[in-house]
Each structure stands twice: as C-alpha cells, then as structure tokens.
Amino acid sequence: MYIVIINPNAGSGKGKQLFEQLKEDELFKKKNCRTFLTEYEGHAERVAEQVAAIHHDVIKCVIVIGGDGTLYEVLNGLRKHSNITIGFIPVGTGNDFARGIGQSDKGVDLFRKLITSSEKKMIYTGKFSNRQSSQQRTRLFMNCIGFGLDGYVASYANRPSFRRWIKRFRVRPFTYPIALVVSLMNYKPIEMDMEIDGVKRSIKKSMMVTISNSPYYGGGMNIAPGADISKPYFHVLIVGPISKWKLLLLFVTVFFGKHTIFKEVTQIKAKSVKISSPHPLVYQVDGQVGSCSECTIQTGEHQRAILIG
Question: Which ranges constitute the DSSP H helices of the chain?
C-alpha cells in the first residue's frame, strides 16, 4: 500500500496542482494510492500517525508532497514506526531536504521514479527536546535546528502579510534572503550556555547557532558544507559577535559554502548539544518556528529509509 500525503497549499498552490496531474497518471491509478490532503498546520502529522497505527504492516511507503514543513510533520507522525519508508516530492518554498540528498527530479516524473526505480538511502534524523513545550516530548527533524537569527528570519518569513507580499511581487525563490535583510534591521545578539558532547562553553552576543543534519536551509543556503544526513553526527555552526553589514556579507557567501572562512564563524562536529539561556530563544526547526529557554538536541539512535528519486 502506498500512502500519499499532500499539502495542497505548499508552494502557493503547487501541491494542489501536482495532485490534479497525478490523478490523471496511469501509474498513480494502477497503484491505487491512498491519498490524504492536509487541511491545517499539524494535519499531516496526525494523518501519518493514524494511518501508520492501523496499516503499518502493509505500507510500502509514505510519499509526502509538500515543503520541508510537511515532511517534518510526517516524520514526527511516523516516529513510532521507523521501519516505514518515506518518499518526498518537494513543492514548497525552500525544498532544502531534497537538495541535500541530491534529488533533482520533480513532479509526476519523480513520483513515477519513486514507485518504479528508486533507491533507498539510510539516514539519521535529529531529535530535540524542548522543556518549554507543553507536551514535553521529543521531536524529530531532517535538516537543522537554529537559534537566534535563524528563528527570527523564519518567524518573519512565515508571517501571512509577508507571504502575501512575496506572492504579489512573485519573488517566492527569494523569500528567505528578503526576510533576512528585513530582520537584520531590528535583530539583537543572543546569549546562551552550551554543552557540546559534554564540553561546556558560554556564548556571549552570538548572532546565531545552527545544528545541522543536512547541508542546506533557507532555500539553498549551504549553511553546513560537508554535512551528510547519512552520518550519525551534526555540524554545529556558531556565529560570534559580528557587525550587521559583515553578517549580511557572510550570508551572501553562504550560498557558496564559503562563510566558514570568516573568523567569527566556529564549526564543530557533535552528536549531542544542550542549550540554555536566561531569556527565551526563538528557533526554527525545518522551517517551523518555536521558542524555548532550554533545549537538548541529539542524533537519532537508528537509521531510517528514504526513497531517492
């Protein structure tokens, strides 16, 4: 059984457009895929959790059509069923997970490839526990979790008014760079204590801290050159005190993975990171925004299979 979970609103309606195309595809009809269209934030997670609980023994693959946020939801919906393979057809704003695993095909062609001639890639997901969370549970992520400017920019980019502006002027590929420039006007450095694989360090006036499981975020920014989701460790990037103009220059070089040459940038490979701050920190995880004062991030204990088209 193939389960297809679709976010029709992803990519300003591209999810819905692709679904209409798939309904006319002979292979889609032949496989009798069970499809679910999401209706609200968090719906994809609920659907994945319920379907897996009932049909986990017969599911061949759960195919996600949406953005990285939809994939994040499905991943967490399947957290009790790590044996279920996931396929991903990107139609979102950033599509950084697909970029990170080298997936170039799109749309109906990618669907057909996932069904007929795909290969499995074994990956490690990240997990984090947020003590500010009302549900007090561990969450999983694919790409990265970032504190400080990362979260601030993602929060701004997710504002409905900003999204409407982006859509009106047809600059969706530049959503995150534009949000970055605007966010820098009022952004202030963060303070935190970190414990990286048991080693403690105090961070004063940092612009951002990003724990990456995959190379890309923000629509193609190569934030963690060399990161590999099939490896059981993160790439931790810390940007220390830096002028806003120099930080803007740094982000220009991020697209080419050259930001690591800046003296204000520190990189560390790690399996476990603990963060605490006297003030709430805005963070983003796979494009989803939250806030916390304490957080523990670890690599997953087990690998899971992803279909590569």
Answer: 10-22, 26-30, 43-55, 68-77, 96-100, 107-116, 149-157, 160-168, 175-183, 244-254
Instruction: Let me know how long the chain is.
Output: 309
How would you classify the pairing of strands 61-66 and 86-90? Answer: parallel
Distance CA 26, CA 31 (A): 9
Evaluate the CA torsion angle 94, 112, 104, 2 in order and state its sign: positive
In a 3-state reduction of DSSP, which class is residue 101? Answer: coil
The residue with tokens 């279909």 is 307
The alpha carbon of residue 290 and the mean position of all alpha carbons in its chain are separated, in whole angstroms, by: 13
Q: What does the pLDDT look like over 236-259, one tens digit per residue?
A: 999 999 998 999 999 999 999 999
Q: Counting Cβ atoms within 10 Å, is residue 281 exposed (0-12), middle (13-18) or buried (19+)?
A: buried
For residue 145, what pLDDT is reported?
97
Task: Report DSSP state, residue 189.
Answer: -
Helix (H) or strand (E) holding 283: strand 272-285
